[in-house]
Amino acid sequence: MSYIPTLSRTRVQAWIEEGRVTVNGALTRRPADRLTLGDFIELAFPDTPPLPTPPAQEMPLDVLYEDDHLLALNKPPGLLVHPTPKERADTLWNGLLFRAKAWGEGNLPGLVHRLDRDTSGVLLVAKNRPVLAALARALRSKEAEKHYLALVYGRIEAPKGRIDLGILRHPEDRRRWAASKNEGQPSSTLWERIAEAERAPLTLLSCRLLTGRTHQIRVHLSAQGWPIVGDPLYGEPRYLGIVDPEIRERCRQFPRQALHARRLVFMHPVTRQRVEVEAGVPEDLAGLLRAAGLARIV
C-alpha cells in the first residue's frame, strides 16, 4: 500500500471498527489488537466493498515437516501464497486455512516468510501467533540458513562470492526493485557456482540469503550480469545467443524464474532443536536442468 500523508490514526481506527480490516483472513474490529511479524493485513477503503473472508479450501499440500507448532511445505511453482482483492481463492493460504481446522481452537496459520508466486520450494508456516513471532526471530538469527538454487545466464569464473548491494524500489516501475551501492536497504547474498552447462552459457548457482529483502536474489544476480533464466522482471532474452537448439527452446519456453528454495535450517522455537528441511527440485526445473546437462548435479 502507498503512503497516504493525510491519513490519520482516528480514520484508521474507524475503518477497523467498521469491519474494513482483516488480519490473516479474519475480520478484526479492535484497534488495540497487537500484530505479529508476518501477519497478513487487508484493508477495504470506504469507496470499495468490504473484503470477503478467504474461503478454506481442501487442497493437496506437500508437507516436508510438521509438529504441534509449525510445518514446512514444498510450494509448487505458480501457486499464489496469499489471496489478493482479485484472487480470493485457490491460494496456498486457502489450503492452510482448511488444514488449520485440525489444529485446535485458537490456532491459525502464520507465514514466517514469503516466496514469489513463481518461485518453488521450502515455505515455513507457524500454527499460532506466539510461534510465528519466535520463528521470525529464529530466521533472523545467525544460525538460520536459507539456500536457493538458481539457473542463470552467463559463465562465471569465480567459484563463489558475496553480493552486498542495497535494494530499493525501482524509480520507474513499482513492480520491480533495484540494486544500489549507496542507497536502499542493506542486503547480502552468498553465492557458489555448482556447475556450468557444457553446451550453453548457463550456470547453476547455490545462493544463501544473509538478509531477506523482496526479490533479493533476483535483483542481486541480475545486477551482477547473471539474470535468472525465465525471470519476467529482471531477466533478459539471452536464450537468443544459445547455439544448441534444444536448450535455446527450453530456455525460451520456461514460464517462470528458474529459482527454487531448496533448503531451510533453523532452530525450533519450542524444542530448541536444529531443524533442517529440504525440498526436491520440481519437474519443470528438473526438465530444464536435464536439457542443459545439469540434472546429475542436483
Polypeptide structure, described:
With 298 residues, the protein is of the alpha+beta class. The protein has three domains: 9-43, no CATH class; 63-141, Pseudouridine synthase; 145-265 and 274-297, Pseudouridine synthase (2-Layer Sandwich), CATH 3.30.2350.10. The protein is built from six helices and 15 strands. Strands 4, 5, 6, 7, 8, 9, 12, 13, 14 and 15 form a ten-stranded mixed β-sheet that branches. A hairpin with a 5-residue loop joins β12 (188-196) and β13.
Rg over CA atoms: 21 Å
How many strands, which pairing sense, and closed or not: the largest β-sheet?
Answer: 10 strands, mixed
CATH-level-4 superfamily name of the largest domain: Pseudouridine synthase
Number of helices: 6
Shape: globular
Count of structural domains: 3
